[in-house]
# Entry
Amino acid sequence: MAAIRPCQNARIMCRLRCCHVSWSPDRCTVEGGRLSRHRREAMRPLPAGDDAARTRDRTMTTLELIAGRHAGLAFLAWLAGACALGLWVGRLLDASRTSPARRSRVMAGLIAGGVAVFGFIAANVVTESRLVAFDKVLAETLAERASPAWLRFLSMLTVAGDRDFLLGLGTLVLAVLLWRRRWRDAVLWLAGTLGAAGLNVLLKSTFQRVRPEHLHGFTQELGWSFPSGHATGAMAVYGMLAYLLAGLAPPAWRQAMAMFAAGLIASVGYSRVMLQVHYLSDVIAAFAVTAAWLMACVAVRERTDRSRVLRPSGLRSR
# Structure
């Protein structure tokens, strides 16, 4: 067995005390049972000089403790970050603040960024890199430490991303758009929501990632895990609804609407991770690829709108 230096020994003993683990060179036990393979791998001594790996390991330990022991604070931090991101994107896309040319560049950047984030996560899932190991350790930590009361609350919150709920809301929005004779908005709504749903089905069948175990009984999910269907549906429906409502709302309300939509979408994604029906990377990848899809739909719609406006004036000038 490789020798363990004092700094490494202190790191391991700190990890073991946090997990209520007794450790010896050839055996690890936790509260009467064996540690999982992923925890044993996470706690094995690091080679001398591997500072980057040691830093990643400390980061992983910190995130596990935050997500497991301080889930409420983690939720508030997640929500605050999502609202800040929604505010930033809302300001960038606000038609009253941004010229059409700059707005198009922003959309192109968001599309490229979403595709890049999804591609990075997908590559890590396929190669089963350290990101996958973190996903599994985090899921196991949540299974051990999440309180039943918190899980019960999240099982009610996650309904906002259920397929039946989103289907009912989507049908209602479509009916209102057709009743108001907003044909182009109705086409955009169908393209954004149904297109995202079809894309999610395609990606799930392509990657076929198995879900984490969730034995708490508050929710039960079947099917493939990557990317998250609830996160995809929430981003598609609430994101597109926020875009349509922003076109009708006064400028002062648009940023607040963007923040509210971002918070609601993030809440659904957070509930999927805490309920252990999805890995964290499933949710982030779903957000990224669905946001890119929505931005592409909106970009095509606005480009055709500008063409419709410019074409008559061009004909008259001839």
